[in-house]
Amino acid sequence: MKTFKILFITALATIVLAACNNTSEEKDNGKMDSGSKSGMMKEKSDKEMTATFMGDFKGESGHTVSGKTKIKDGKLMLTDFKTDEGPDLHVYLSKGTDVKDAKEISKIDLKESEQTFDLAGIDVEKYDTVLIYCDKAHELFGSAMYSDKTADMMGNFKGLNDKKVTGMVTLNDNKLMLSDFSTDKGPDLHVYLVKNDKIESGVSLGKVDLKNKEQSFSIPKDINLKDYKKVVIYCDEAHVMFGEAVL
Predict the structure, then answer these.
(1) pTM of the model
(2) One CATH from 2.60.40, 1.25.10, 1.10.3470, 2.40.50 for 52-148
């Protein structure tokens, strides 16, 4: 009888221990699943914060809208922006040009060519288009489809030494591209890739066309773009920097 009791107690203890082990494993698995999900969410968040999305505006519904949009570091930026006037224009993020499921961001300023909006808490990868929409008239004024430009290096020009230089520069696929570019006139303007604030650290990619807003220059394959911090518009004859764009 005593032997039977001992065997019964031993078997019962084994069952209890097995149940505890299963519960522990389930908890551990739960922790791993939770950690994995957390890691994936963090990875996605990090990507959104480091990725750059860009697009060009075009008019819709017979309206004129122009300029560029850039999404970076949780901000939506409009540059060189112009639009037809409307009574109640707002900027939205959408999938395509349908405003039905779009995310309203803010009301826009009709007179400002450079505008910035906060995108905190918004998953920009759920959308692919920036809309300019008139809430009052229920009419689409313009749109800009954007795409991931993480591999590109970009910057906006500003003037130096009392000179005026505007526009955007993009470096990608061994090409340097100027868009919406404008500069004060100079006798011998060139575009340089520069490592620091000194032109001596730079390399000239070619002479600038003063009348062309869209220009492209080839970048030698032996140049490591990571070594360069700025694109400079420089007058070789006068030895003066006209403008720069920090990459």
Answers:
(1) 0.48
(2) 2.60.40
